[in-house]
Amino acid sequence: MKNIKFFLIASLFAFSSQTQAKISILNKTLKVNSFDQKKNKFTIKGNVQGFEDGTKVYINEQGEQGFIKIDSTVIKNNTFIINGIVNELELAFIEIGNTQEYIVPFVIEKGEIKVTYDKANPDNAKVIGTKNNDYLAVYNTESNKIQREIRDFQELNNEKMMNAQQSQDKQTIDDLMAEYQKINSKLVNQNIDLIKKNKDAYISLIIIEQLMNGETITFEEYKSYFEAFDSKLKNTKKGKEINQRIESLEKVAIGQIAPDFSAPNPEGKMISLKESLGKVTIIDFWAAWCGPCRQENPNFVALYNKYKNKGLQIIGVSLDRDAEAWKNAIAKDQLTWIQISNIKHWQDPIAQLYQVSSIPKTFILDSSGKIIAKDLRGAELDTKIAELLK
Q1: DSSP reduced 3-state for 311
Q2: What is the Cα–Cα distance from 255 to 377, expressed in whole angstroms?
Q3: What pLDDT, in 10s, does the model give residues 93-150?
Q4: Which of 21, 109, 165, 323 is the one with CA 20 to 30 A from 377?
Q5: Residue 42 and residue 32: Cα distance in Å, rounded?
Q6: Are 117 and 49 in contact (CB under 8 A)?
Q7: How many C-alpha atoms does 214 have within 13 Å on its Cβ side?
Q8: Which residues form a coiled coil (predicted)?
Q9: How far is Cα 153 from Cα 39, in angstroms, rounded to an integer?
Q10: 155 in helix, strand or coil?
Q11: CB 287: neighbour CB atoms within 10 A?
Q12: CA pair distance 350, 342, nearest whole angstrom
């Protein structure tokens, strides 16, 4: 039960902790000859309403810790112009002002890119003029209705969900999650339909990356969709990043031997997976700050007490960044099995090795270390453990 995803707007541009879109588009960062500059030039022409003359307009790239400003201009008479050189297709963001309140995503590509933005109606922002930005405009038009439905549902039910989690009201949680997933599935299906029809569109790369981050489709599905993309798309920087991620995910797919790892326990002793395997082993990625993880811990305590003498091992891998908070959570939740952490948050090397982009996340291994299942909860998990321990 991944309740943490309930609080994430299922938007194309809701970047995960591991998203690193690096954009090299400025004359000052690229060394190309004059012919290439002319050939690869882009111009952004903006028409905006509701902003004073002199308001700054930035082009941002997405870094590990947030936006990085890489170019700017100012608004004059409700317009702005930015010129640059593009080396290859990339996703970037126009920011109007300096508050990150008025953000417009767009695709950097050669040609004239036209932006319209009304401060009073930000949902009607539009970016058109080049092939991939036209694709993006179509996507936004089609998806806005569903995304508004998702936002309305979250705003209406967030407090109800938080109260249910605090009181461990499983029925309410399950009901809300089922209703949310029903709405979210509309967007997922729309996204899948789009990438099937647009195998040469850069937007398809961004969509498939978000589907991977949200774990809304299977590994086999997004691998199949990606392999069907146009070769030029797969050979972009983003395409190569996704291909590398697919190769990494394949190493932790069901049926593979779980990669070995080691990290310190709360006392500082190094613990490895290889030396800690039980007859059945659960690798549990969690953190003290993760509400759904903490909510699930009592179930793990009961499961461990039930099966530990029959060969069940659990290895908790924490994505905390505060060692004391981690240790306090272990004590408070009475977690008596192996606990390890590098105290590196989302930069934890074990999480990166296992391609963990959301928590809670679990892998179930047999006695040989082979991955048998993932993300089982409740009765389904108990049944699988009992079956494997026979």
Answers
A1: coil
A2: 19
A3: 999 998 778 899 999 999 999 999 999 988 889 999 999 999 999 888 888 888 889 9
A4: 323
A5: 14
A6: yes
A7: 25
A8: 139-193
A9: 47
A10: helix
A11: 25
A12: 9
CATH of domain 262-388: 3.40.30.10
Instruction: Kindly give the interhelix angle for 291-307 and 378-388, rounded to the nearest 10 degrees.
Output: 30
Amino acid at site 48: V
Q: Name the token pair of 210.
A: 């978000």
Distance CA 204, CA 48 (A): 28
Q: Are strands 66-74 and 56-63 parallel, antiparallel or unpaired?
A: antiparallel
Q: What are phi and psi of 168, to 5 degrees?
A: 55, 45
pLDDT of residue 2: 36
Is there a contact between 204 and 194 (Cβ–Cβ < 8 Å)? yes
Of 288, 267, 259, nearest to 340 by C-alpha is: 267
Q: Which residue has the higher pLDDT, 219 or 17?
A: 219
The full set of domain ranges for the chain reads 3-12+134-250, 262-388
Looking at the chain, the whole-number percentage of residues with pLDDT higher than 70 is 90
**Rounded to two decimals, what is the model's pTM?**
0.71
Q: What pLDDT band is residue 336 in, cutting at 50, 70 and 90? A: very high
Strands (E), the chain: 41-49, 56-63, 66-74, 79-85, 90-96, 103-108, 111-118, 126-128, 262-264, 270-272, 280-286, 312-318, 338-341, 361-365, 371-374
Q: How far apart are CA 361 and CA 290, in angstroms?
A: 11
> Regarding beta strands 111-118 and 41-49, do their DSSP bridges make them parallel or antiparallel, or are they unpaired?
parallel
The alpha carbon of 47 is separated from its chain's Cα centroid by a whole number of angstroms, namely 32
